[in-house]
Fold this protein.
Amino acid sequence: MAGLRQFEFFVLRYVPDAVKDESLNIGILMIEEGAGGVGFADVRFTQDWRRVQCVDPQADVEWLQALERDIRGQLAQSGDRAVLMNKLQDSLSNVIQLSSAKGCIAADPVREMGSLCSMYLEASQLPSPKRELTGRQFIVAGIRDEFERVSVLPFMTEHFSVAPYTKDGDPMKYDFAYPVANEIKFLHAVTLRAGVDQAVVLAARFPEITDGIRKKTQAEAKLTAVVEDGLDLARPEVGFALAMMQEKGVRVARLGEMRQVAEEIRMELKV
């Protein structure tokens, strides 16, 4: 697909006490897939070390900053990224751990890396009380659980921004995205129980977003909206929202159907 490229990224975690198994995300390492060692590759560490110092007052921030420079230098010099990743896995101390690879697709790797850093490094990582998930959060968690069950989550781009295909500042982000042949497929959680505004906006904007993606990448966009189980279909507004999504080309699936949907995706991706 012209314009879109495939990348892998890894989260670097700081683990000051292996016994407690507590960690903080401190960096993102991102490399381009299948580029023969000449594609994009970079690493970016957090610029705010206060969380690390709060958890570990003895943390050597200068050493961590030097580690970032060392990894960046190795990325620039290495012609074989697979060998380099194995070397990094072996050479990093127990204090620094590398996550498993996660996949993403992007037209602009620098912007995508900035988004990943915002997502993984800037949010508060101090322990917080667990809350029961409700509404959209509950649906997103259910989708992710099914993707993990069939081992396709690493192939998903999460929080896919449509701004590069519409206008700068567009806040719309689809929950999950993955490329197949000349298509980009999206899944997005939509709650109808509390109101239908989310669904109406999603449906109304999809043709515009589809057109923008087609113009810039020549790829066709497909969208599945995942809604709650047990909706009251007798409510006129619910029927209206479901009909509007379908009229605008949005496939609708219930959360209870996600097991079948995840299996279909596994077969598409040949995982």
Remarks:
- The chain is about 40% helix and 25% strand.
